[in-house]
Amino acid sequence: MNYRLLLILLGLLSVGVHAQPNAGSTTFSVSFPSTQSKAALDGRVLLILAKTNKPEPRSQVSDAVETAQLFGLDVNDLQPGQAAVVDASAFGYPKRSLKDLAPGDYYVQAVLHKYETFKRSDGHTVKLPMDRGEGQNWRTAPGNLFSKPLKVSIIAKTKQRISVVMDQVNPAIPEPKDTKFIKHIKIQSKRLTEFWGRPMYLGANVLLPAGFDEHPESKYPLCLFHGHFPADFDGFSETPPPANMDTTDYIERFHVHGYKKIVAQEAYDFYEKWTGKDFPRMLIVEIQHANPYYDDSYAVNSQNLGPYGDAIMYELLPEIEKRFRGIGQGWARFTYGGSTGGWEALAAQVFYPDEFNGCFAACPDPIAFDAYTVFNLYKDKNAYYSEGPFRRTPRPSQRNYLGQVKVTMEETNHRELAIGTHNRSGDQFDIWEAVYSPVGEDGYPKRVWNKLTGEIDSTVAAYWRQNYDLMHILKRDWKTLGPKVAGKIHIYCGDMDNYYLNNAVYLMEDFLKTVKEPAANSEVAYGDRAEHCWNGDPTQPNYISRLRYNTMYVDKILKRIETSAPQGADLKSWRY
User: Fold this and answer.
1) What is d(CA 537, CA 350) in angstroms, rounded to the nearest whole number?
2) Is 504 helix (H, G, I), strand (E, B) or coil?
3) Of the candidates 430, 412, 410, the residue with the CA atom closest to the CA atom of residue 128
4) What pLDDT digit, counting tens, does each position of 277-321 carry?
5) Dihedral, CA of residue 489, residue 490, residue 493 and residue 495, to nearest 10
6) Closest Cα to residue 438, out of 310, 308, 304?
7) CB 123, CB 129: distance < 8 Å
8) Which DSSP symbol is given to 438?
9) Residue 393's beta-bridge partner residues?
10) Among the residues of 179-277, which ranges form H helices?
11) In whole angstroms, what is the distance from residue 434 CA to residue 305 CA?
12) Residue ranges per domain, the chain?
């Protein structure tokens, strides 16, 4: 009797599995009208499905568990009115295929992320999304086509073809305007133009010191503030926030109400410090180096991105110092930044050791690939899983300060793959690959691991090690680099960094503590239970200290100048 009951139950379960409804027979027909473009277009069709239209589905794609569903499809020479068909073969995130999508009601929206053709000087022709002033964001890139959200019903076991028309276009982004203190500069780079085979530009937002016009004889030290694409110089305001400013906003990450007013008040406080009589007069520069792969270039030379490091150092910075009376010597240049900017600050000090007198690298992207977030790029076989003879354990990609995992490595990378093939997602793991990898035979970056499976390519990893692993380079070249960077390296990181970036900092700290001839004389500090991006101030919560980059390292910069400036250096004209 029990045996017969078991068979009946197994039969019911089997029927339930086979009867599970899916959307495998549903397809989407995505097109654009001739009113938006009479010419054929190249790019990536992105189809997004969400359970709500507030915000729009395209704004709901993320690493969060609440993410919208995304499917991606490359298109070449897509004609006006021609349908790009998104079916079960289109790669998706987080569901891999349309056939895995449950029937039900959805809001659907389509975006065409437009690509341009580049004929590079290395002989390769590639199609990439040129930045158009938005900082490599497919959601808002000017000229990208999109559809209005459309409510649809996906019905089980029913053949459907749903039409989606991209009849909207993202508008151009206005250029920021100069003010008394903030100036904007843009130059065409000879080096980058030659590499990319078309005009390429570098820009910067420059914060001028108080009294700049009143002291025409003064020349100034320069601080290069590295970070993600800065549309304008943020965090500086000549007016305080209104007393009745709305404070009902809530920031989940910081568990703080009224953060917008806090940010506005900090911006005004910075203005008051900047113009105060005791504040040292200097130039603060944020560079704009968005490119066809990301919102910035990582400020180094790269086979795939071109000679951005040299273009910044030998074209952009000299022009800034010429226009705005910079001292223009290495003893009077410093660099700082967080996250991407933290890696760039340290990389600039390592690759151009004579050009900077100190770097302050906060929560830097992995500075030792032995600890490439949560795994060893050189010894591990798979980026997505730690594997034994009888089990595979997914590797985490993000966590909170309690260690609770938000998303896995595989999920993050599959989101990028759905957004764009050939490193064209404009996102984090893709840009690391684009910067650090050699060029592949097809002209696109070689994958350091299989984007679908996570299997690591040891030959590409070896190339990364020799060219961009900052700890390995310091170890390898310490005999020549050490005398140039001793006393200049400062690194700060939370010990619960959301992206596990502290793991590489631990390895770097061990090296810097023990190296001799010369001793590193460096500084490495950690924030207890601090998340990304802790930047070195243990007296303030990080939601405050992250707003004070431009003031928190000043005392250390001044001390370094006083103890290291060459004889006869100008230490007075900028201290009025």
Assistant:
1) 24
2) helix
3) 430
4) 989 999 999 999 999 999 999 999 999 999 999 999 999 999 999
5) 90
6) 304
7) no
8) P
9) 386
10) 190-196, 259-275
11) 7
12) 22-169, 182-368+469-564, 370-466
Distance CA 44, CA 418 (A): 10
Of 146, 141, 199, 145, nearest to 173 (Cα)?
141
Query: Which structure tokens are listed for 394?
Result: 């997914």
Q: Residue 202's beta-bridge partner residues?
A: 187
Rounded mean pLDDT of 497-524?
97
pLDDT (0 to 100) of residue 13: 38
What confidence category does residue 253 fall into, taking pLDDT thresholds of 50, 70 and 90?
Answer: confident
* Count of Cβ atoms closer than 10 Å to residue 245 Cβ: 12
Q: What phi-psi label fits residue 355: left (phi over 0), alpha (psi between -120 and 50 degrees) or beta? A: alpha
Instruction: Give kind and range of the element (H or E) at residue 507.
Output: helix 502-514
What pTM, to 2 d.p., does this model score?
A: 0.94
Cα distance between residue 471 and residue 508, in whole Å: 6
Handedness of CA 527, 530, 536, 540 (dihedral sign): negative
Q: What is the CATH number of domain 182-368+469-564?
A: 3.40.50.1820
Cα 385 to Cα 375: distance, rounded to the nearest angstrom: 9
Q: DSSP alpha helices (H): ranges in 239-361?
A: 259-275, 308-311, 317-323, 340-351
Q: Mention every residue, 6+ apart, whose C-beta is less than 8 A from residue 428.
A: 412, 416
Q: Which fold has domain 22-169?
A: Immunoglobulin-like (2.60.40)
Cβ contacts of 13 within 8 Å, gap of 6 or more: none
Tokens of 1: 């009797």
> Which value, to the nearest 10 degrees, does the dihedral of the CA atoms of residues 216, 220, 226, 229 take?
0
d(CA 552, CA 337): 11
Tokens in use for 324? 């705005």
Q: Is the CB of residue 22 less than 8 Å from the CB of residue 99?
A: yes
3-state secondary structure of 300: coil
The verdict on whether omega for the bond into residue 94 sits within 30 degrees of 0, i.e. cis, is yes
Q: In the numeric block, which tokens belong to residue 378?
A: 């050189």
pLDDT tens, position by position, 337-366: 999 999 999 999 999 999 999 999 999 999
Q: Report helix angle 428-436 to 409-419, nearest 10.
A: 80
Count CB neighbours of 270 within 10 A: 20
Q: Output the six-digit token pair for 52.
A: 């709500």
The closest alpha carbon to 135, from 290, 24, 242, 334, belongs to: 290
Amino acid at 482: G
- 276: Cβ–Cβ under 8 A, 6 or more apart, which residues? none
pLDDT at residue 222 in the model = 98
The contacts of residue 371 (CB under 8 Å, 6+ apart) are 500, 503, 504, 506, 507
Question: Which residue carries 């390429």 as its tokens?
Answer: 200
Phi, psi of 412 (to 5 degrees): -60, -45
Q: Is residue 322's pLDDT more than 60?
A: yes
* Dist. CA 561–CA 5, nearest whole Å: 84
pLDDT score for 5:
45
Amino acid in position 65: V
What DSSP string describes 534-551? --S-TTS-HHHHTT-HHH
pLDDT at 25: 85
Report which of 185, 177, 219, 195 is spatially closest to residue 310, judged by C-alpha positions: 195
C-alpha separations of 34 from 41, 73, 144, 499 in Å: 11, 21, 14, 44
